[in-house]
């Protein structure tokens, strides 16, 4: 989609940053159904004209803000599959539990609301799949994982687990759920849990 | 919270059902920030007076609707820990992926918006914890699981995995994610994945 920006006129990075911050925060708190360019400008303390010079519609504004503020999941090679997966889970708990966590969760849930958002969401999942796939393939090459390890189920367990951890830590009172360990400790313990067999004897299929 | 219902006047179950269905659908689609008693009545085709006879505010209306329509996660004793966990995952994919899945995901994310919703969300998580705890304890008694098995991480992996599966199946185009198997097949394969070790040799801690 082309933006309605007069050629030759440079964008002010400070205004860009304020608008992106306000867009991500507003979307996280109230969701797509309450998202308007006017509300973003009010929150950012920026005149509406500045926003309309940059974006012709609110989907573009939000998609660009999410892209610049949420960051990307990337693959980190630590030398062992356990270390790599701990880094992946740390990035995921940071994404869902951090400052912009509500916006990331909203995006996962409300992406259907607008085509520009769906694309951004697919990009987020694609980055997770790329990182997980690279980790699994290295683990197989190093002989740490069986050849047939499923990237899909590994992602369901790890991404889902990180999301569930972020959601319940945010919502559920400590007397209902065991108190949450720091992010680094959660990542290590949870990866060990997923990697290490729990069955003491083989189940009969 | 007391409802403003005249004593001696029976509630019409058909009107109750229509209002509850409309409330859950509307909340799932547009979230708490767009949720009003008026909008629920419009969608249900029911006069506003009927709703105001039953509920004094919109939080009560939604909390009651979610309680009656979303159902509860329950513990099913199949005789093996694998069978029990497959039943748990099936209930979870049904909760998040089924007809009311969007409302369940919204509830997990927007529970902070209102105290009555937070309570309902805690109740949902509490039922999941109760079911998982019963399954783990039976598995330990039968000698299938080690004594120290963590209910918390098991829940993160299984509930999170079911949520992630439901979200990505809904959102992500098939060329990005491997095509989704039927719910029963996903539940069996995913539980086997979580229960069975993937490491071909012990990692060095």
From TrEMBL, chains A, B:
Keywords carried by this UniProt record: DNA-binding, Transcription, Transcription regulation
Domain of life: Bacteria
Positions of the HTH tetR-type domain: 13-73
Pfam families per record: TetR_C_11, TetR_N
Keyword Transcription: yes
GO function terms (MF aspect): DNA-binding transcription factor activity; transcription cis-regulatory region binding
InterPro entries assigned: Homeodomain-like_sf, HTH-type_TetR-like_transc_reg, HTH_TetR, Tet_transcr_reg_TetR-rel_C_sf, TetR_C
DNA-binding region: 36-55
PANTHER family given in the database record: HTH-TYPE TRANSCRIPTIONAL REGULATOR RUTR (PTHR30055), TETR-FAMILY TRANSCRIPTIONAL REGULATOR (PTHR30055:SF148)
Name of the protein: TetR/AcrR family transcriptional regulator
Species of the source: Halostreptopolyspora alba
Lineage: Bacteria, Bacillati, Actinomycetota, Actinomycetes, Streptosporangiales
């Amino acid at each position: 989609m082309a933006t309605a920006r007069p050629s030759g006129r440079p964008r002010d990075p400070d205004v860009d940053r304020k608008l992106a911050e306000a867009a991500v925060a507003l979307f996280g708190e109230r969701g797509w159904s309450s998202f308007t360019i006017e509300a973003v400008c009010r929150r950012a303390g920026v005149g509406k004209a500045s926003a309309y010079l940059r974006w012709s519609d609110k989907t573009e504004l939000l998609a660009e803000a999410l892209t610049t503020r949420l960051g990307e999941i990337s693959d980190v090679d630590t030398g062992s599959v356990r270390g790599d997966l701990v880094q992946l889970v740390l990035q995921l708990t940071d994404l869902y539990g951090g400052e912009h966590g509500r916006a990331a969760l909203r995006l996962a849930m409300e992406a259907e609301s607008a085509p520009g958002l769906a694309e951004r969401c697919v990009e987020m999942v694609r980055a997770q799949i790329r990182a997980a796939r690279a980790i699994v393939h290295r683990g197989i090459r190093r002989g740490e994982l069986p050849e047939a390890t499923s990237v899909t189920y590994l992602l369901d367990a790890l991404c889902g687990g990180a999301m569930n951890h972020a959601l319940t830590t945010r919502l559920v009172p400590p007397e209902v759920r065991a108190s949450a360990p720091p992010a680094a400790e959660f990542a290590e313990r949870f990866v060990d849990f997923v990697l290490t067999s729990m069955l003491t004897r083989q189940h009969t299929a």
